[in-house]
Amino acid sequence: MRSGIHPVSRPVVFRDRAADVTFLTLSTAASARTITWEDGTTYPLIDVEVSSASHPFYTGASRVLDTAGRVERFERRYGRPAAARH
């Protein structure tokens, strides 16, 4: 294996802003922000919007979409008149 061509892997703390969860893992991502972990060691900190702690696929939570309301709003704005709908 050639030396000097692979990025350096190091411990990094990722913080999920939506679920307010932090986790320590190995990553090649770099950050100027740091955080002191539970063991007293300082690690780079990377904020993420979604992780397995907050993503609906992993949490089992689902969003309810108001598709009927969307269709009615679209039709009011751009679509057919109310009499032509039925």
TrEMBL record:
One of its GO terms (cellular component) is ribosome. The keyword Phosphoprotein does not apply. The keyword Ribosomal protein applies. InterPro entries: Ribosomal_bL28/bL31-like_sf, Ribosomal_bL31, Ribosomal_bL31_B, Ribosomal_bL31_sf. Keywords: Ribonucleoprotein, Ribosomal protein. It comes from the Bacteria. NCBIfam families: L31, PRK01678.1. Part of the 50S ribosomal subunit. Belongs to the bacterial ribosomal protein bL31 family. Type B subfamily. This is Large ribosomal subunit protein bL31B. It comes from Streptomyces vulcanius.
